[in-house]
Write a structure and sequence with these properties.
Elements (H helix, E strand, L loop, with lengths): L10 H4 L44 H18 L1 E3 L13 E2 L5 E2 L6 E3 L11 E6 L2 E6 L4
Antiparallel strand pairs: 1-4, 2-3, 5-6
The chain binds protoporphyrin IX containing FE.
The site of protoporphyrin IX containing FE (HEM) has 11 residues, from helix 2.
Length: 140
Amino acid sequence: MPAKTKVLVNTWVLGRDPKHCDDPETFYPKRFLNGSMDYMGTNYEFNPFGAGRRMCPGITFVTPNLELPLAQLLFHFDWKLPNGMRGEDLDMAEVFGVIVKRKNDIVLVPRREKGAVEKGITSFELRCPFIVIQVEVKTE
Ligand code: HEM
């Protein structure tokens, strides 16, 4: 390979290879529970943060900053699709580029924590290392 060649690894394709992942298009997080595959750069079949000496140094920063707010939003609210939409109506279109992202945002309606007002809870904080979200609970 000539010096200074730019190489882009297509991790989108690697992560969907049926040789390493059963039914890759299905959202099934439990597939990672008992397997040996992780995202820390030790498995070349699945490496969203790259691998080796030049892998992403932001991995320890970004992981809790995504996982904790998401876990807290799921814990504190029930989420519904708007306007009677059902799961199969979701637009899963993607835009291809150096990274692949959703074409259109997902719109969800949060419903307050069950029984929060009855329990006398009027506000709470969603916390993770770098983000604090203050939530006011209101009756409908
Ligand atoms: C979900 C979020 C992120 C993903 C999926 C991601 C993914 C990646 C990938 C695939 C690479 C290329 C690794 C390689 O060439 O093998 C990379 C490099 C890099 N990332 Fe991230 N990253 C994320 C967030 C961040 C954050 C938050 C920071 C900084 C705070 C960061 C800093 C960097 C830097 C500096 C490099 C270049 C490393 C080098 O070339 O030596 N990343 N990232």
